[in-house]
Design a protein that fits this description.
By secondary structure, this protein is mostly beta strands. The protein has 4 helices and 23 strands.
């Protein structure tokens, strides 16, 4: 019996994970940034984490929202999005001279709070189901009695549509739309959208009034293999210290940068440098990230840019807005500050003037054009 008991205990010891080998799922803090025309609610892993704070009945509601939540990978992201209609006719401004069929659109990106990297964004690989479509006969837009004359169709919303276990294999894929087609305004410009984030909806931007969207993010995105775009500097290492000569404490010139593994389909390159500023001081206004360098339409054949150079690509704005080109960082307050440098490979050149080329305008212009990207982080602390 003693031998049998020892054997059983040995088997159990092998079968049960020890504290050092136990797999524990880690909850991660995320932030969703969303703009919708006109209203949305966001679900993650079957749980509602937030919705548009402005009621859909509010006229001309085009605000944006930041929604913070915690979740565990894999993430099932689900959104119900609605375009405002006054009733089942699918029309708005009924009885007024501008009685019309409205249009819609939504853009969303989700980032990890700690790493600040975007792990999900709306694109045409999201699944979509239309649950309300009206009017089916668009000519009724001129009717004096649209409730009777306009036809509509409705699909019952599946009870578990936002759950990870729900199967959306019969749903269609979302359609991407341009900013001009959607008519972006107001809150859309509150965020710096990652270039790969797109405005999406079902295939019909006007007639499909209520839609469901789904996307599964299995794991946190990892860095691509060795053939990914590489960005480096002879003056500092990734995660290292920014030499004084590139700051306002030194010469204040732009750093030397080099790159490799540019994709064959690249037509132009873009460089940017920015930082997220610390707490506002008395009298300061929040203007978002401080960007120090924007260079666009860099030739696809270029492989480097020398320190202080102004002859590679087209120089754009900096956050100071006083002159075109580089403005050096002037780190404020104690401790090291992080500055990020980005390189983007695009499938086309950009048609934007140097005066218009702020960081956010460049990111918007690059939407849907980014083939590959790379990033360097560097730190500087003033003595």
């Amino acid at each position: 019996m003693r031998k049998i008991a020892l054997l059983v205990m040995s088997v159990l010891a092998l079968a049960l994970p020890t504290s050092s080998h136990a797999v524990v799922s880690k909850s991660i803090a995320f932030q969703a940034e969303v703009w919708a025309d006109n209203w949305f609610a966001l679900y993650v892993n079957g749980k509602k984490v937030g919705e548009d704070s402005v009621p859909i009945t509010t006229e001309k509601s085009f605000n944006s929202e930041k929604i913070k939540f915690s979740a565990i990978y894999p993430l099932t992201i689900a959104v119900i999005a609605k375009d405002f209609t006054e009733n089942s006719s699918g029309l708005e401004y009924i009885g007024k001279p501008n009685q019309q069929i409205g249009d819609a659109g939504i853009i969303l990106q989700i980032r990890e709070v700690v790493s600040d990297r975007v792990i999900a964004q709306t694109q045409n690989d999201w699944k979509v189901l239309t649950v309300n479509k009206a009017p089916l006969n668009p000519e009724c837009v001129t009717s004096n009695n649209p409730v009777n004359d306009c036809k509509s169709s409705n699909t019952k919303i599946p009870s578990t549509w936002a759950a990870p276990s729900y199967k959306d294999t019969t749903w269609k894929t979302a359609t991407e739309f341009s900013k001009e087609a959607v008519g972006v305004k107001d809150g859309y410009f509150d965020f710096t959208w990652t270039p790969s984030a797109a405005l999406i909806w079902s295939s019909d931007l006007k007639l499909d009034n209520t839609i469901l969207l789904r996307k599964v993010i299995k794991t946190a995105p990892t860095l691509a293999a060795s053939k990914s775009l590489l960005l480096s500097s002879p003056d500092f290492k990734d995660g290292g210290s920014l030499p004084k000569e590139f700051t306002c404490d030194g010469k204040g010139i732009s750093p030397s940068l080099g790159w490799s593994n540019v994709p064959a389909s690249t037509e132009s390159l873009v460089l940017m440098m920015d930082t997220t500023p610390g707490p506002l001081r008395p009298g300061e206004v929040d203007i978002g990230k401080h960007f120090y360098l924007t260079v666009f339409n860099i030739p696809k054949t270029a492989t480097s840019i020398s320190a202080g150079a102004t002859n590679v690509g087209t120089l754009g704005q900096n956050f100071q807005g006083k002159t075109i080109g580089y403005t050096p960082p002037c780190s404020q307050g104690p401790g090291a500050k992080k500055y990020s440098i980005y390189l983007y490979a695009l499938n086309s050149k950009l048609t934007i003037s140097p005066q218009e080329a702020t960081e956010i305008n460049l990111l918007n212009a690059m939407s849907g054009k980014v083939i590959s990207s790379a990033q360097l982080d560097v730190f500087y602390s003033r003595a």
